[in-house]
């Protein structure tokens, strides 16, 4: 049976399961500590994904109970409010009101003549919604949320571990890929960036509380999420379709929004350690979060210290010793200190002031053996900070305006020291971001299906990048560039059918639209539209679809005219000869934005007939045009003559005299071989150009089932990503080349299967991680990299919820064994003629860590 037919039959089966399930069942995982009623009710609303109306004069001075575990929303509210004198009542399909018990009686209720100030004070608890600028609005895009308790229960102690295991994420930017210099990764990353769909880390927009932060890396290409303490994270939202119409540039493949525990009330200390049984790679850390909430505001501060030791190649038998004869680290020595916090204060019924800030300092050291006789020590530091402040003003009961400003900066310095050679090179890079925004949100008109809501505004941003590289092997290189960005945006959410006029076959019908125009001072303007629809024929069965266009401007480092260099070196040919080739590499001031068109079609099902079952599935298709890339040369520019026909538009042989003269006129031509202008035989343009086009499509799916038995609550689920195609056309006029299902590219199929048991204070979770096998083109004939199956087990015990007192009160303990059977990464073989180092494995689809045992102790004060 053909692969395409098999894929579509599986896709049809998943969709059929979604269609067959009839209605809604509210089951959520909650992790809410005891705190003030104002913040406790807001926290439950965020974690449940519902709106909860609560007047501050009713909640002032009251405290709610802790709510932990998986349960329905009604039960969670009852547990939260027990003994508080408050009660909840359902006022809509996804809306609740919390009122004093006496007002909850059938003859009780609110005075219909509330003043404007009182109405403004009784608006829904603020919910950060990923995928829209409209607070509390439903989104038509596919969004998966991973709560704090869910992330911890799976045994993750850092966001880096969470990103590594996310099926929709391709691990091209992490510390292992940086150490091994894998093509397509930031060779000086030493951090973790999300790369949804495998379209590049720069094509995934990463936000904190819905706001941009300054990117890092050696060229400002990605946001390093490993710097964010997990203790400060309330949830991670993963939106997997293009969203430039909402957020602007870079949201081509999707958005990862890290939502903080803004309203945390209390204090919590966490210590953790992780020890691989094969040796090396030990991790240890300590985290602290403190928060205080009062009737009109809140403040939270979280800090984290993290220390990781390197893993050397001689500690892993799957790395051929002949490749790295001297000490070579598969991951660096790493130390990090992070701090993040926020504050919010309501001043009267109409004004709210807010602030969010973060600081991070990290240091890395790595030993490499690039030659058989010399080691190379790479070391460096990175420092980053960000701050956002602003005010939200309630103009009336239906309209508000938010004014905000942000400032973010990242600074990075690193040096390379060769032990047996007189090479000492160093570099410094930095990115800066300053942003201001005015956003108006409100209700336009009431329809029978609900309230038509809108958001619109203006955003101004200044971005800058600079670098300085120096050494005794080349002349100093300076780079500095900046640009201004002006953006106008607008959104509309139109509920045509809802609780007020729904009927069988048409319970809900929601239309959404967004339009954004951004003008860049260096590359011009871009308009990004997006449209979406959500149709619910039955309660609990939602069909959704989106269409949109997105864009990504060139990085400032890619546009800088000073980032272009010229080298004159002998290039080898297949027959053993050499051709003196002048080649240009680096930036290109003529680059234009990359653009894409994306569609998604999916369904979400929560059937009451099968209580505890949730199914979600989404088909995606992305056409990514004008990709910025270098000419496709396997092994690097030096091997251009191994495929002269395929590189004919970039290779001039014999060399064009005009091109050679123009290059030497810049005074930037260098040659480590001592060659001069008269020695030039060929010219190769290896600089960046808008030459590539990518297309991808596939299916992402998730299924969870939870049920209660006398022995406890049982949970099972699967979360996966299935790529139908990922192909690239290296340049115009050439044929598409298949990228998926081959080395250093996304595997066609990735999935996690989860099984959990919980009862009272105990929770046990087992997870299977599967990465499908794929083709290996680094051997002749093509070989195969086998699939990889690993299993983790996490055991959690909450001493605080078991009613204990004394030192164990508020204590939680977690023991995790990752890769229980110590499955080595699948062997990736490399022929000597492949011009690629034989690392022994593919770090983008596997990991060298092996089995590791970790312990985390958390104490709530």
Summarize the structure.
By secondary structure, this protein is mostly beta strands.
The coarse silhouette is: globular
Largest sheet: 22 strands, antiparallel, barrel
Residue-averaged pLDDT, rounded? 84
- Strand-residue fraction? over 45%
Query: Unreliable runs, pLDDT <50, ≥5 residues?
Result: 1-26, 105-126, 183-187
Q: What would you call the quaternary organization?
A: single chain
> What value does the Rg take, in angstroms?
28 Å
For the terminal residues, how far apart are their CA atoms?
A: 60 Å
Number of helices: 12
Estimate the helix proportion, in percent: 10-25%
Number of strands: 43
Task: Characterise this structure.
The structure is a single chain. This protein is mostly beta strands. 10% of the residues lie in helices and 50% in strands. It has a 22-stranded antiparallel β-barrel. A five-stranded mixed sheet has the order 31-33-28-27-32, with helices on one face. A hairpin with a 2-residue loop joins strand 37 (749-759) and strand 38 (762-771). Helix 2 (37-48) runs antiparallel to helix 4.
Keywords:
disordered N terminus; 22-stranded antiparallel β-barrel; single chain; 861 residues; 50% strand; mainly beta
List the helices and strands and how they pair.
Blueprint: H1 3-20, E1 28-32, E2 35-36, H2 37-48, E3 51-54, H3 56-59, E4 63-64, E5 67-71, H4 73-81, E6 86-92, E7 95-100, H5 101-104, H6 116-121, E8 143-147, H7 148-153, H8 159-165, H9 175-180, E9 204-208, E10 233-239, H10 244-247, E11 254-260, E12 266-276, E13 283-294, E14 297-308, E15 311-312, E16 329-331, E17 333-347, E18 351-371, E19 374-394, E20 399-418, E21 424-447, E22 450-471, E23 477-497, E24 508-520, E25 524-538, E26 541-552, H11 556-559, E27 564-572, E28 578-586, E29 594-605, E30 613-629, E31 651-652, H12 657-665, E32 669-670, E33 682-685, E34 689-709, E35 712-729, E36 737-738, E37 749-759, E38 762-771, E39 774-776, E40 783-785, E41 788-798, E42 811-818, E43 852-860
């Amino acid at each position: 049976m053909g692969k395409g037919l098999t894929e579509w039959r599986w896709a049809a089966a998943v969709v059929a399961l979604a269609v067959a399930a009839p209605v809604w069942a509210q089951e959520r995982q909650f992790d809410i500590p005891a705190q003030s009623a104002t913040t406790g009710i807001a926290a439950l609303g965020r974690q449940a994904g519902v709106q909860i109306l609560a007047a501050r004069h009713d909640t002032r001075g009251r405290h709610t109970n802790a709510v932990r575990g998986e349960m329905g929303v009604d039960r969670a509210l009852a547990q939260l409010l027990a003994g508080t004198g408050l009660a909840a009542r359902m006022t809509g399909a996804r809306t609740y009101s919390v009122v004093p018990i006496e007002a909850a009686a059938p003859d009780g209720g609110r005075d219909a003549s509330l003043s404007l100030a009182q109405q403004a004070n009784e608006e829904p608890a603020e919910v950060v919604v990923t995928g829209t600028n409209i607070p509390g609005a439903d989104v038509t895009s596919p969004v998966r949320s991973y709560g704090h308790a869910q992330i911890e229960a799976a045994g993750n102690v850092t966001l880096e571990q969470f990103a590594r295991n996310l099926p929709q994420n391709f691990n091209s930017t992490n510390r292992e890929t940086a150490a091994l210099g894998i093509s397509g990764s930031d060779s000086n990353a030493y951090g973790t960036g999300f790369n949804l769909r495998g379209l590049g880390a720069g094509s995934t927009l990463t936000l904190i509380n819905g706001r941009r932060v300054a990117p890092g890396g050696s060229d400002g290409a990605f946001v390093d999420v490993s710097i964010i303490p997990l203790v400060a994270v309330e949830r991670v939202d993963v939106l997997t379709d293009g969203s430039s119409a909402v957020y602007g540039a870079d949201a081509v493949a999707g958005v990862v929004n890290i939502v903080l525990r803004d309203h945390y009330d209390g204090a919590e200390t966490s210590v953790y350690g992780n020890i691989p049984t094969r040796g090396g790679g030990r991790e240890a850390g300590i985290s602290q979060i403190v928060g205080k909430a009062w009737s009109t505001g809140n403040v939270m501060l979280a800090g984290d210290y993290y220390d990781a030791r390197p893993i050397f190649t001689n500690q892993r038998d799957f790395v051929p010793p002949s490749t790295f004869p001297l000490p070579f680290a598969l991951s660096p020595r790493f130390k990090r200190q992070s701090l993040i916090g926020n504050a919010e204060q309501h001043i009267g019924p109409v004004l709210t002031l807010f602030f969010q800030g973060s600081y991070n300092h990290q240091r890395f050291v790595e030993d490499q053996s690039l030659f058989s006789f010399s080691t190379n020590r790479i070391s460096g530091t990175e420092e980053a900070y960000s701050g956002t402040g602003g005010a939200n003003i309630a103009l009336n009961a239906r309209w508000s305006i938010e004014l905000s400003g942000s400032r973010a900066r990242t600074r990075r310095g690193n040096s390379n020291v060769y032990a047996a050679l007189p090479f000492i090179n160093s570099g410094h890079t930095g990115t800066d971001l300053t942003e201001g925004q005015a956003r108006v949100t409100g209700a336009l008109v009431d329809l029978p299906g609900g309230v038509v809501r809108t958001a619109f505004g203006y955003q101004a941003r200044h971005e800058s990048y600079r670098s300085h590289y120096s050494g005794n092997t080349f002349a100093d290189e300076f780079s500095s560039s900046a640009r201004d960005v002006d953006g106008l945006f607008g959104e509309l959410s139109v509920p045509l059918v809802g609780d007020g006029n729904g009927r069988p076959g048409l319970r809900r019908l929601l239309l959404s639209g967004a339009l954004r125009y951004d003008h860049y001072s260096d590359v011009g303007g871009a308009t990004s539209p997006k449209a979406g629809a959500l149709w619910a024929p039955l309660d609990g069965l939602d069909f959704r679809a989106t269409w949109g266009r997105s864009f990504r401007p060139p990085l400032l480092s890619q546009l800088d005219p000073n980032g272009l260099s010229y080298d004159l070196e002998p290039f080898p040919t297949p027959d053993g000869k050499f051709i003196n080739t002048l080649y240009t590499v680096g930036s290109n001031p003529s680059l234009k934005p990359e653009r894409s068109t994306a569609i998604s079609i999916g369904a979400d099902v929560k059937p009451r007939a099968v209580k505890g079952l949730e199914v979600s599935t989404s088909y995606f298709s992305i056409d990514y045009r004008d990709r910025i890339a270098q000419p496709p040369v396997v092994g690097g520019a030096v091997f251009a003559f191994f495929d002269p026909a395929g590189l004919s538009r970039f290779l001039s042989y014999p060399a064009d005299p005009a091109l050679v003269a123009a290059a030497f006129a810049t005074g930037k031509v260098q040659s480590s071989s001592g060659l001069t202008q008269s020695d030039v035989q060929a010219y190769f343009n290896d600089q960046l150009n808008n030459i590539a086009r990518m297309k991808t499509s596939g299916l992402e799916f998730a299924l969870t089932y939870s049920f209660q038995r006398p022995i406890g609550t049982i949970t099972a689920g699967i979360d996966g990503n299935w790529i139908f195609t990922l192909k690239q056309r290296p340049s115009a006029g050439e044929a598409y080349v298949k990228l998926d299902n081959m080395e250093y590219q996304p595997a066609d199929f990735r999935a996690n299967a989860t099984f959990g048991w919980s009862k009272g204070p105990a929770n046990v979770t087992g997870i299977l991680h599967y990465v499908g096998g794929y083709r290996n083109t680094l051997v002749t004939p093509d070989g195969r990299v086998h699939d990889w199956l690993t299993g983790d087990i996490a055991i959690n015990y909450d001493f605080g919820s078991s009613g204990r007192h004394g030192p164990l009160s508020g204590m939680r303990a977690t023991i995790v064994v990752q890769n229980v059977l110590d499955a080595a990464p699948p062997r990736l073989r490399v022929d000597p003629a492949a011009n690629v180092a034989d690392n022994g494995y593919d770090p983008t689809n596997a990991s060298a860590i092996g089995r590791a045992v970790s312990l985390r102790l958390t104490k709530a004060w």
